[in-house]
Amino acid sequence: MLSNDGGFISRLIIWLLVVVVAGTAHAARIHLPKNTSVVNGRPSLLSNGLGLTPPMGWNSWNHFGCKIDERLIRATADAMVSSGLAGLGYKYINIDDCWGELNRDSQGHLVPKASTFPSGIKALANYVHRKGLKLGIYSDAGIQTCSKTMPGSLGHEEQDAKTFASWGVDYLKYDNCENTGIGPKERFPKMSKALLNSGRRIFFSLCEWGQEDPATWAPSIGNSWRTTGDIEDNWNRMTNNADQNDNWASHARPGAWNDPDMLEVGNGGMTKEEYRSHFSIWALVKAPLLIGCDVQSIDRATFELLSNKEVIAVNQDKLGIQGRKVKKYGDLEVWAGPLAHKRVAVILWNRGSSPSNITAYWSDIGLQPTTIVDARDLWRHSTQSGVKYQLSAQVESHAVNMYILTPHA
Ligand code: GLA
User: Fold this and answer.
1) Among 230, 331, 374, 377, the one annotated catalytic
2) Does the pTM of the predicted model rise above 0.85?
3) Is 72 exposed, middle or buried (0-12, 13-18, 19+ CB in 10 A)?
4) How many whole angstroms from 95 Cα to the centroid of ligand 1?
5) DSSP string computed for 231-264
6) Does 243 participate in catalysis according to the annotation?
7) For residue 229, which atom of ligand 1 is closest to its CA?
8) Which of 106, 159, 250, 273 is most solvent-facing, going by the fewest CB within 10 Å?
9) Torsion region of 218: left, alpha or beta (phi above 0 gives left; psi -120 to 50 gives alpha)
């Protein structure tokens, strides 16, 4: 009698476990295949080892839209090297939408547009690889891309991933238009798996605009995921994207980054201080740093912003922890995040319309109350030694002060 009851109870427990596990898998509704590995305690389909720090490079969309051709891509690669930007880490040369013919060929392959990319993508990849750079390309998890000028990869994931690999592509941005109403959690993992099967390590950048909270499911299938709609070259849009992206800070980690969209620095719609804010915040929150202006004719002010090694080092810090908004006093904000060697990166951001004093208290930025630090100002390139309790500064309208605080031993 007793042993029968025990048998019943253990069967009941097993049944309950099965129900809970099945329920959790169903709730996540993400379609991971059987050979999924586990990375940092989480199931990971995408063990490609890429993006241990956020990707840096250039993308054609923000400045050129569909007006792209192979000459532009080659000239941009040349300019990235000759300007010194490539040497600072900006390695990816990413072609966005509009590089292909409207239709696939008779075997179903994507075809580079003959009028604008006559030499083909493989030739371009060879060109940028010879310069020590990497080539990125764009497709869409739907039946057409957002421009509707070329096919998407929905239903052709394996074939397209193999095509990209055979061309020597290093990065895929994968968009969300014309998706026939199928959910992104079903469409995006297919391409992730196809890229893994392609025989080449390809950085996978998901672009479903933050619609289904990708931070909660994309880390296991992608190296980055958009958390927002498209950025525009204006203050409101840039600040909105920064705020929206901030909601997902805890989900980012090496190999898997939140993406508030590409940089607009240098495109002319914001002031120098607004662009400085844009670049500083993107660096602190470990966003991909993808330049979106015309680097062939980059001006001195834009170059000075994009080439600040101390700010880039915050973005590329090996801890890979996303900095976040830690305090807000109306339009005055403090953003901060930990860096390797017990250092802390801090931004005092004045989003208001007049100059104001902003203070970061140690308790808000994760320092012990008695800690004494040296505060390095990353834009003025000067150091204040022996700072205690708090850091205060007068910050101009729409501007930032950005620091690394190094505790005394
Ligand atoms: C979408 C993406 C953009 C860009 C365009 C191209 O809007 O979010 O970043 O790739 O498509 O058509």
Assistant:
1) 230
2) yes
3) middle
4) 11
5) --SSHHHHHHHHHHHHTTGGG-BTTBEEE-----
6) no
7) 8
8) 106
9) alpha
Q: Name the DSSP class of 83.
A: H
Residue 56's beta-bridge partner residues?
289
pLDDT band for position 47 (50/70/90)?
confident
11, pLDDT greater than 80? no
Backbone angles phi, psi at 249, to 5 degrees: -50, -40
Assigned token pair, 335: 């953003």
Could you tell me the two tokens for 359? 């203070």
Tell whether ligand 1 has an atom less than 6 A from the beta carbon of residue 101: no
Coil, helix or strand at residue 169: coil
Q: Which two tokens stand for residue 157?
A: 């994931």
CA-nearest residue, atom 11 of ligand 1: 146
Which position has the token pair 């208001």? Answer: 352
The C-alpha atoms of residue 228 and residue 207 are separated, in whole angstroms, by: 9
How far, in Å, CA of 329 to CA of 332, rounded? 5
In angstroms, the CA 159 to CA 293 distance is: 32
Express each pLDDT in 320-345 by its tens digit: 999 999 999 999 999 999 999 999 99
Look up residue 208 and give its two tokens.
């479903």
Average pLDDT, the chain: 92
Region 54-63: mean pLDDT is 98
Q: Which two tokens stand for residue 233?
A: 């070259």
Among residues 69, 140, 170, 175, the one annotated as catalytic is 175
Which DSSP letter does residue 302 get? H
For 68, 81, 184, 295, 304, the CA distances from 133, given in Å and listed in that order, are 19, 9, 31, 15, 21
Ligand 1 pocket, mutate which of 62, 95, 207 (most atoms under 8 A from CB)? 207
Asked whether the predicted pLDDT for residue 16 surpasses 60, the reply is: no
